[in-house]
Amino acid sequence: MRKPVRRIAVGVAIWLAVSALGCVVLSRDELRRLRDAFETDARIAHRLLSQRAVQHDAVLATLALLQPANTADRSEQRLPSLYSQILGVQRRDPGETWPDAPTREAEAQSKALQRAVLARVDLPAARYQLVLASEPASFAMQIDLHAAVPWSEWPMPPETSKVRLALEHQGQLLVLQPGRIGERGWHFDFRKHLAADSQPFDVVATRQVGWNELPWAEMLAWVVAVGAAVAGLVALGRQRAGRQRAEELLRLGQVGRLNALGELAAGMAHELNQPLTAVLANSQAAQRLLNDDPPDIETARNAMAQAALQGRRAADVVGRLRRAVERPDLSQQLATVALQEAVHNAFYLLEPEFIRGAISPSLVAPPAQVIVRADPVALEQVIYNLLTNALQALEHVPPPERDLVVEVSTHAGSGVLTVTDTGPGVPPEVLPHLFEPFFSTRQNGLGLGLSLCETLAQGMGGTLLAAHHQPRGAAFTLTLPLASP
Question: Domains along the chain?
Answer without folding.
Answer: 1-235 (no CATH), 330-481 (3.30.565.10)
